[in-house]
Amino acid sequence: MSQLPTIRVQTADFDVAHEYELLAKDNSDGAVVTFVGKVRDFNDGNPVTDLTLEHYPGMTEAVLQQIAQQAHERWPLNFVTIIHRVGTMALGEQIVFIGVTSAHRKAAFAACEFLIDFLKTKAPFWKLEAGDTGSHWVEARDSDEQAAKMWQQD
Amino acid sequence: MIQVLFFAQVRELLGTAKLEFSAQGINNTEQLRAALAAQDDKWAKVMASDKLLVAVNQTISNWEASVADGDEVAFFPPVTGG
C-alpha cells in the first residue's frame, strides 16, 4: 500500500504523538521513522534567541509534494508526512516534522533521511536568526548540499 | 505584465516583496534580471549576486528560461529550511 503524502506548511506547532498515531495505524507497516527539527540555542558559535522562517507560498507545498513523490518512487513506503512551520519560533520549539512508514526499517530510515536532506536544499524556506547582536539570515551550508548530492542516482 | 517576487535577503535588500514589470523586450530570466539591475545601483548589486536563484511559475529555473507576459518570476537566495 502507498498513501498520498500529508504535506502541511503552518505557523502552528504540531503534536508528535498525534502525528505518530496517524502514521502508525496500518499493521502492514513494521517500521515508523520520525524526525523532528528544533530551534537550537547556537549557530556557528553565536547564541540564538529566536528564529523566523520565511517561505514562498504555493511553491513550497509543490516542492514538498515532489520530494515526497520521489521518496515513494525510491522506497516501498506507505505513509509520508511532512510538516514545516513558518513564522517566528522561540528556542527549543519544533520547526519540522518528517514521518515515514514502511514494512521494514531500512526503507523507512533511508526515506526519512532523504526527505530531510532534500527539503533542506530544495524547498523554498529561509531562516532569519535573532541573537544578542541583532538578526541575520542563515547562510546555506555546503554540507547540506553535499548530503543531498549523496542521494543522486547514477 | 510579469509578476516578480523577492524573498529573504533579496526582499530585504531591495525593500520590495513584489512588483509588476512590463514584459516588453523580455524573453528570458537573464533579460529580466538585467532589466531589474538597470534600475539603480542597489538593484544592480543585488541582481549581480552569483548566489541569486530564480524560479519561473514556482519551479526552480536557470538564466536561459523563457519568460512571457503573465508569468510569475521569483528571485531569492539559496534556501535554508529544515
From TrEMBL, chain A:
Q: Does the keyword Phosphoprotein apply?
A: no
Example GO molecular function: molybdopterin synthase activity
| A Pfam family annotated for this UniProt entry | MoaE
Keyword set, alphabetical order: Molybdenum cofactor biosynthesis, Transferase
GO BP terms, alphabetized: Mo-molybdopterin cofactor biosynthetic process
Enumerate the CDD domains for this protein.
MoaE
EC number(s) of the enzyme? 2.8.1.12
On the tree of life, the source organism's domain of life is Bacteria
Q: What pathway annotation does it carry?
A: Cofactor biosynthesis; molybdopterin biosynthesis
Family in the record: Belongs to the MoaE family.
Assembly: Heterotetramer of 2 MoaD subunits and 2 MoaE subunits. Also stable as homodimer. The enzyme changes between these two forms during catalysis.
PANTHER family per the UniProt record, alphabetical? MOLYBDOPTERIN SYNTHASE RELATED (PTHR23404)
Protein name from the UniProt record: Molybdopterin synthase catalytic subunit
* Organism field: Shewanella aestuarii
TrEMBL record, chain B:
Q: Which UniProt keywords apply?
A: Molybdenum cofactor biosynthesis, Nucleotide-binding, Transferase
Q: Matching InterPro entries, A to Z?
A: Beta-grasp_dom_sf, MOCS2A, Mopterin_synth/thiamin_S_b, ThiS/MoaD-like
Transferase among keywords: yes
Q: In which pathway does it act?
A: Cofactor biosynthesis; molybdopterin biosynthesis
Superkingdom, taxonomy of origin: Bacteria
GO terms (molecular function) for this protein are:
nucleotide binding; transferase activity
List each coiled-coil range: none
An example Gene Ontology biological process: Mo-molybdopterin cofactor biosynthetic process
A single cellular component GO annotation: molybdopterin adenylyltransferase complex
Q: Matching Gene3D superfamilies, A to Z? A: 3.10.20.30
| Similarity annotation | Belongs to the MoaD family.
Official protein name in the record? Molybdopterin synthase sulfur carrier subunit
Q: Which organism is it from?
A: Shewanella aestuarii
